[in-house]
Amino acid sequence: MIDVIDLKKSFGKVDVLKGIDIKINKGDVVVVIGPSGSGKSTFLRCLNCMEDPTGGQIIFNGVDIADPKVNINIHRRRIGMVFQHFNLFNNKTVIQNIMLSPVLCALSDRRKAIIRNIFSKKKEPVRSKDEIKKTEKENAMKLLARIGLEDKANAYPSTLSGGQKQRVAIVRSLAMNPDVILFDEPTSALDPEMVGEVLEVMKELAKSGMTMVIVTHEMGFAKEVGSRIVFIDEGVIKEENNPKDFFDNPQDPRLKEFLSKVLI
């Protein structure tokens, strides 16, 4: 699904990513760990071009989305993103947050279909605006029920706990029916007692076959859910392996040092 080839990213004279190579297949749960400042979050943000790569390729479903000529917004529809600090719109209700992107994309597609119908003899069906909103509202309610928050549909984010906000952020990504979801330290801003409820949602996603790339410091979660663990340090992948061999038999000296500090 994603083939990253010699990915580089610099900020001015600072080289943050120095040549990342990795393949992510459908159904993979790739967990990325490493010390602060190693380039983990930058790598994740480059995967959907929230940060423009300085060099290299990111082949997503056969298209190099790092190519400046590519309309990245078309491909971002298929790449969900969950942020450390939720990034919900505080002036919109929970259900409005979830519906926002699907409705905007559907309305955009509707306009394009209307234009195509003007110039084409073969007319394609066009949903009304009300049909689009009704469908997306029904889907949003199903997603909220999936995480046990359907009673919060009309609440505003400011009234939710941190764990509830992050669960809403996850289903907001799911509402776009993405091929892959990127998680940027999704539990690091949460109180300890709220971490579990978010990790449970992510575990369920993994069981359902969702392709996921997760930057996290939750080593227990990485062991349990990850299909592969990737250690990034100083802008390069120092080691990559299945969870058992990664944690039980690390090879890279820097990884051994890192694990000795984070595993108790």
Overview in brief:
The chain is of the alpha/beta class and 264 residues long. Helices cover 41% and strands 23% of the residues.
What do you see in this structure?
By secondary structure, this protein is of the alpha/beta class. The protein has nine helices and ten strands. It has helices spanning 40-47, 72-76, 94-119, 129-146, 162-174, 192-207, 219-225, 243-248, 253-262, and strands at 2-11, 14-24, 29-33, 55-60, 63-64, 79-82, 180-184, 211-215, 228-233, 236-241. Strand 4 and strand 5 form a beta hairpin. Helix 3 runs antiparallel to helix 4 (129-146) and helix 5 runs parallel beside helix 6. The longest helix has 26 residues, at 94-119. The model has no long low-confidence stretch (mean pLDDT 94).
Helix and strand layout, with pairings?
Layout: E1 2-11, E2 14-24, E3 29-33, H1 40-47, E4 55-60, E5 63-64, H2 72-76, E6 79-82, H3 94-119, H4 129-146, H5 162-174, E7 180-184, H6 192-207, E8 211-215, H7 219-225, E9 228-233, E10 236-241, H8 243-248, H9 253-262
Parallel strand pairs: 3-8, 3-9, 6-7, 7-8
Antiparallel strand pairs: 1-2, 1-4, 4-5, 9-10
Helix pairs in contact: 3-4, 3-5, 5-6
